[in-house]
TrEMBL record:
Cross-referenced Pfam families: DUF61 (PF01886)
InterPro entries: UPF0216
Superkingdom of this protein's organism: Archaea
Provenance organism: Methanohalarchaeum thermophilum
Record protein name field: UPF0216 protein BTN85_1112
Similarity annotation: Belongs to the UPF0216 family.
Length: 147
């Protein structure tokens, strides 16, 4: 076995370890996301986590989201809204993707970004405010790129 093969094998091992660590970090995420409409139609809105936990959704948050999102899009806003953390972003920087999710973030933070309707980058103080307002309908998710 030459030196290059050994380095590649170690790299594969490191990738597997990283994937396992990310899976562990993200086990709090729901098995599947639900639309605002789906959650509004049930008496006890909740998500089932990948770790089989039951995560209750605060109905007051759903009412808040109803006021922000036009009714014709209730069936398109996927919840929870993911607040993405990645090493490729600057320290303390997070991303929210999706046209409706960014509309919600902009409304909650009372800001208007001109950069993009598809994604918005927010900083730690803004994340804290967003999580205070939408604790049960937002989740952190941890990402990485493997090369």
């Amino acid at each position: 076995m030459n030196r290059k093969d050994t380095n590649d094998r170690l790299s594969d091992r490191q990738k597997k370890l990283l994937i396992k660590q990310l899976r562990d970090l993200n086990k709090h995420l729901p098995k599947g996301r639900k639309t605002l409409k789906e959650l509004m139609e049930v008496d006890d809105p909740e998500f089932e986590g990948k770790d089989n936990s039951i995560q209750k959704v605060d109905e007051e948050e759903l009412k808040k989201l109803e006021k922000i999102v036009p009714s014709e899009f209730y069936d398109r806003l996927k919840l929870p809204i993911y607040i993405e953390a990645s090493r490729k972003f600057n320290r303390g920087t997070y991303r929210v993707k999706g046209k409706l999710a960014t509309k919600v973030v902009k409304s909650i933070l009372d800001k208007e970004w001109k950069v993009s309707d598809e994604e918005v980058f927010i900083y730690r103080p803004e994340v804290l405010k967003l999580r205070r307002e939408l604790k049960t309908t937002t989740r952190y998710t941890f990402l990485t790129e493997l090369h």
